[in-house]
Amino acid sequence: MWCPHSPPGCHLYQPHTRISLHPRGLKYHYLFSPADSSGLKPTLVFLHGFPSNANEWRHQIRFFLGRGYGVLAPDLLGYGGTDKPTDVAAYAKSLMSADIIAIMDEEGITKTKVYAVGHDWGCALISGLATFYPARFAGFAFLAVGYLAPTPDYNFEAFNASAKALVGYECFGYFYFFAEEGADKIIADHIGTFLSILYPHDSKMRLAHMAPRDKIKDWVLSRKMTPPPSYLTQDDLDVHKAELLEGGLAGPLCWYKQYTTGMVAEDDKLVPKENYVIKQPVFFAATLNDHICPPEVGLVSLKPGCPNLTIKEYHTDHWVQLAAPEQLNKDLLEWIESQ
């Protein structure tokens, strides 16, 4: 599954696929290549967001493999070749964090330095790794979305209102549609229209047709289309569409339901309070043209929760790893090598 859409030369590496993990017995599809034999290069764990898979990291994988780094890039729960449970409780950060640690243990990633790099919901999972397993990592990089600090009293309505007060408009209205019963089937029936608003050529279209409550559902049902951004071809979107239709959207949408139902609050109660502040170095990629996840919202938790914080700004939309891969790769490399 990986190689047809992976970086050139991926046939030189043998990715493990569908490894059974315990105690949950779930199967994860992932690419792993160990660091070079010098013992000096760290391993990077790349965690994608919605509605993607590990292929989202193709530019970063090629760049860092070429420099001797180890790379672990899983399809996260609900995506790609990984299992897709529809029980929302299966998507708790504590459980998915344990899954990633199990993969690391399976591959012997225990002695090398490890940096976790996440985008979108991958940042939520990095937040789980940072708070449940801080000793396993040398640093954390958050792209577009910031650190989701433990919030035992989390309430989505309050969070949505506070973000609106901060930036002057509703950012997360699309959560309501994604949490609706049957939203996965509506999206599947209009997958082309859905992807066109997630990846529009003009990022401001997401501000009008995705951020406010009910607008994305209206867009999806309208069957409207908008051209893709310059960093994606129609072929890219066609492949993405086929993968999503094959696996369905019920699993990926569970990531949102963790938050709209408040399940995340119970999970956050498990985090030791001494782990609320991330002590390792943290990198934040602020995507200045991202109207859905504006940097101001991410910085609310990053500044108090990450005292060793490096911020880099990018004039891109949400998908900085696709829109500005050369600059992002350069900045990540400099940040890691400065530690």
From TrEMBL:
InterPro entries: AB_hydrolase_1 (IPR000073), AB_hydrolase_fold (IPR029058), Epox_hydrolase-like (IPR000639). The keyword Cell inner membrane does not apply. GO terms for molecular function: hydrolase activity. Residues 42-322 form the AB hydrolase-1 domain. Keywords: Hydrolase. The keyword Hydrolase applies. Transmembrane segments: none annotated. Gene3D superfamilies: alpha/beta hydrolase. It holds the Pfam family Abhydrolase_1. It comes from the Eukaryota. Belongs to the AB hydrolase superfamily. Epoxide hydrolase family. This is AB hydrolase-1 domain-containing protein. It comes from Mycena sanguinolenta. The lineage of its organism: Eukaryota, Fungi, Dikarya, Basidiomycota, Agaricomycotina.
